């Protein structure tokens, strides 16, 4: 892989097959090559230190990132809220999850000090962040300001 590589690897949130696609195609509602379900709609996708920069660079939608870890209770509690919002707001925002255990570089890069931390990024600029698990109502209200 070179610095010029613009292919992004995305694990399908439905069947977990790894899809490799041109980053610019992120905005064309790509389907999973294996199960044909929409890759970026209806469920959060897991990002890595390789895929996140490409997603942020190419996404025309605001991106909301959930920094979490498997051992974090509040993160587990918040997981279904994040997943439900990803379903409700498909096509309006892109919902990304970063496992800070598996991807510590990303936690450092975004200066994440506590988890869960939620971050909204648009056009490579951070718009806002909030730490701590929000209720479904709070989360929805928080997201609405970016639409
Ligand atoms: Zn799939």
TrEMBL record:
<keyword id="KW-1015">Disulfide bond</keyword>
<dbReference type="GO" id="GO:0005829">
    <property type="term" value="C:cytosol"/>
</dbReference>
<dbReference type="InterPro" id="IPR049299">
    <property type="entry name" value="Thio2_N"/>
</dbReference>
<dbReference type="InterPro" id="IPR017937">
    <property type="entry name" value="Thioredoxin_CS"/>
</dbReference>
<keyword id="KW-0676">Redox-active center</keyword>
<feature type="domain" description="Thioredoxin">
    <location>
        <begin position="23"/>
        <end position="147"/>
    </location>
</feature>
<dbReference type="GO" id="GO:0015035">
    <property type="term" value="F:protein-disulfide reductase activity"/>
</dbReference>
<protein>
    <submittedName>
        <fullName>Thioredoxin TrxC</fullName>
    </submittedName>
</protein>
<dbReference type="Pfam" id="PF00085">
    <property type="entry name" value="Thioredoxin"/>
</dbReference>
<dbReference type="InterPro" id="IPR036249">
    <property type="entry name" value="Thioredoxin-like_sf"/>
</dbReference>
<dbReference type="InterPro" id="IPR013766">
    <property type="entry name" value="Thioredoxin_domain"/>
</dbReference>
<dbReference type="Pfam" id="PF21352">
    <property type="entry name" value="Zn_ribbon_Thio2"/>
</dbReference>
């Amino acid at each position: 892989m070179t610095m010029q590589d613009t292919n992004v690897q995305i694990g399908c949130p439905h069947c977990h097959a790894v899809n490799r696609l041109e980053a610019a195609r992120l905005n064309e509602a790509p389907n999973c090559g294996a199960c044909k379900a929409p890759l970026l709609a209806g469920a959060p996708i897991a990002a890595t230190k390789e895929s996140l920069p490409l997603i942020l660079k190419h996404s025309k939608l605001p991106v909301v990132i959930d920094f979490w870890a498997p051992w974090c209770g509040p993160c587990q509690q918040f997981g279904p809220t994040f997943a439900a919002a990803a379903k409700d707001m498909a096509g309006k925002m892109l919902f990304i999850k970063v496992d800070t255990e598996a991807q510590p570089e990303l936690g450092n890069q975004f200066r994440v000090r506590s988890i869960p931390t939620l971050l909204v990024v648009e056009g490579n600029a951070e718009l806002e962040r909030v730490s701590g698990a929000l209720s479904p109502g709070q989360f929805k209200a928080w997201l609405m300001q970016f639409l």
